[in-house]
């Protein structure tokens, strides 16, 4: 299924965003357009917000087909690239509001790690939050959401494509997902 015109326009605008470009030690080198970071194989900063409901279920999002990285994959975290003038925390708050419509919720900071795969080199800031309110999906980036228990995620991760960077965030910082 091809992406919609709105998704394609959103992707083009996203590719022009100026993203924090960093080195292997997460030292800021400047800012570059998102597409240029990917094309040149440089490292950017990204955020992952692992959202749980009050029952301990994880909010999983299926990415739209217009996404440049892992189109159509399931994602275990909301989030995105850190703009050059943002902190990890500010980016996490912005992305959570944009993608899922969640605002005013405290974010717990879990730390940073380097994810280095072909076409996806990121220093990742990992956060979590608990939310039982309504979600408002950003249609250009998320096609659907569901809440899953850790056991269900482990089963689904065997049969469906999941973003490897967000699964790595789960494995590193959330003991209930260590067996992924």
UniProtKB/TrEMBL annotation:
InterPro entries: NUDIX_hydrolase-like_dom_sf (IPR015797), NUDIX_hydrolase_dom (IPR000086), NUDIX_hydrolase_YfcD_pred (IPR024195)
Coiled-coil segments on the chain, per record: none
Highest taxon, organism lineage: Bacteria
One Pfam family linked to the record: NUDIX
All residue ranges annotated as the Nudix hydrolase domain in the record: 42-171
Residues passing through the membrane, by range: none
Keywords: Hydrolase, Magnesium, Metal-binding
GO molecular function terms listed in the Swiss-Prot or TrEMBL record: hydrolase activity
Gene3D superfamilies listed in its UniProt record: Nucleoside Triphosphate Pyrophosphohydrolase
PROSITE patterns xrefs: NUDIX
Required cofactor names: Mg(2+)
Family under the similarity heading: Belongs to the Nudix hydrolase family.
Protein name in the entry: NUDIX hydrolase
Organism: Pseudomonas quercus
Lineage of origin: Bacteria, Pseudomonadati, Pseudomonadota, Gammaproteobacteria, Pseudomonadales
